[in-house]
């Protein structure tokens, strides 16, 4: 195991060396609301793009929202000149995950970087997630109305199938358990028509195809979520892995992607208790599909600090105190060994025992109650198997949300808020 003190972006050299030949680098976070994770992740991503030639950034966010950011950072015609303006249009709760000053800063850098490159070589910014059923439906209508009005009937049929449930997707999922209320046939037909048009070259056609894939994934996800258990989680992470693969194919031979998502998605589930519960995740799927040498998984964690989160699903964000990590945890061990920021790269014969033995590893979602620390928020983890590297911040501070527009809440995810 290699340990490097982290004081400047140049100290990421050991991780860059590990990622030099990889096709996919996944960068995690132990919370969705810590400035330090976003800032350090942005610095590392800048180096991966500028020095190693990575092609795009894909995040745990909705495709339509992130597509506005993508258009801004690639200077597409009609797009926002200031990426922050695109981020401020995020409406789905929790907006602070991506509509924050830290992401805005990275996106401004990315737009400036892209400004020095020819259009085909510009680095993209995309969403991997599955939640935007209605937004994706609207994007499909907009695209077909301009490019293929003859296919609008397929979109209209899918829309009319979902329409009786409005935004209450939980009612659609519940109805599908008891009566023939499923919209699978309509969605499959819509997806087939969009795929035909996506065969033509063009960013708009690809985006329409991806929106159709989101509609299909959301239909499966919301049915599975109402049934309970791990299946909705698996549907979601399979959708993210499939989207990542489509992006790699879209960007062409030699394409390389950086992924930003919670540790719970990017750290290999087989090194945790998730596998025993029948769950898979994005990092595991990527390793299986692309090979361990082509995928680098990097976790992030801290001992204490502050975080932006909400006490209940859909409630306003607050800045909360994260108490010191509990005894016997990964974070307590690292606090004792490395009371400053550091980068760890796993592998080799000299790894200490605590890297390969199961220890509790903290995970904070968008919903958080610090008083429950002694009962929850930890997951048994073999750190050196779950990740290829780890970025350690002994103390992490809360991120800086942008001013939010009126937000829409959705159903709570499984596990909660990650």
TrEMBL record:
A Pfam family hit: Erythro_esteras
GO terms classed as biological process: response to antibiotic
Gene3D superfamilies tied to this protein: EreA-like (biosynthetic domain), EreA-like, domain 2
Full protein name: Erythromycin esterase-like protein
Species for this entry: Salinispora arenicola
Organism phylogeny: Bacteria, Bacillati, Actinomycetota, Actinomycetes, Micromonosporales
């Amino acid at each position: 195991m290699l340990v490097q003190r982290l004081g400047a972006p140049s100290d990421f050299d050991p991780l860059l060396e590990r990622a030099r030949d990889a096709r996919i680098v996944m960068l995690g976070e132990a919370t969705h609301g810590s400035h330090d994770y976003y800032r350090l992740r942005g610095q590392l991503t800048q180096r991966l793009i500028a020095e190693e030639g990575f092609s795009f950034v894909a995040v745990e966010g909705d495709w339509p929202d992130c597509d506005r950011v993508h258009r801004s950072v690639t200077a597409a015609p009609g797009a926002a000149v200031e990426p922050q303006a695109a981020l401020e249009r995020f409406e789905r709760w929790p907006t602070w995950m991506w509509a924050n000053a830290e992401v805005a800063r990275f996106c401004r850098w990315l737009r400036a970087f892209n400004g020095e490159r020819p259009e085909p070589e510009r680095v993209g910014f995309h969403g991997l997630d599955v939640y935007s059923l209605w937004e994706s439906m609207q994007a499909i209508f907009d695209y077909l109305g301009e490019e293929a009005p003859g296919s609008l009937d397929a979109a209209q049929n899918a829309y009319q199938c979902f329409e009786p449930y409005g935004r209450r997707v939980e009612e659609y999922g519940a109805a599908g358990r008891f009566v023939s209320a499923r919209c699978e046939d309509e969605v499959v037909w819509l997806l087939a028509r969009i795929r035909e048009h996506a065969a033509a070259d063009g960013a708009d056609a690809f985006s329409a195809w991806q929106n159709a894939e989101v509609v299909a994934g959301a239909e499966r996800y919301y049915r599975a979520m109402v049934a309970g258990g791990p299946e909705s989680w698996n549907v979601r992470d399979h959708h993210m892995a499939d989207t990542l693969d489509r992006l790699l194919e879209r960007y062409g031979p030699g394409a390389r992607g950086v992924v930003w998502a919670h540790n719970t998605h990017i750290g290999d589930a087989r090194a945790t208790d998730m596998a025993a519960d029948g769950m898979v995740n994005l990092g595991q799927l990527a390793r299986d599909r692309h090979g361990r040498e082509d995928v680098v998984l990097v976790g992030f964690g801290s001992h204490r600090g502050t975080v932006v989160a909400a006490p209940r699903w859909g409630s306003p964000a607050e800045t909360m105190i994260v108490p010191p990590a509990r005894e016997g945890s990964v974070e307590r061990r690292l606090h004792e060994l490395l009371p400053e920021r550091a980068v760890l790269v796993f592998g080799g014969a000299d790894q200490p025992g605590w890297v390969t033995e199961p220890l509790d590893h903290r995970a904070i979602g968008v919903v958080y109650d610090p008083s429950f620390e002694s009962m929850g928020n930890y997951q048994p983890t073999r750190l050196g198997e779950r990740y290829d590297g780890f970025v350690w911040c002994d103390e992490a501070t809360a991120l800086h949300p942008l001013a939010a527009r009126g937000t829409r809440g959705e159903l709570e995810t499984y596990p909660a808020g990650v």
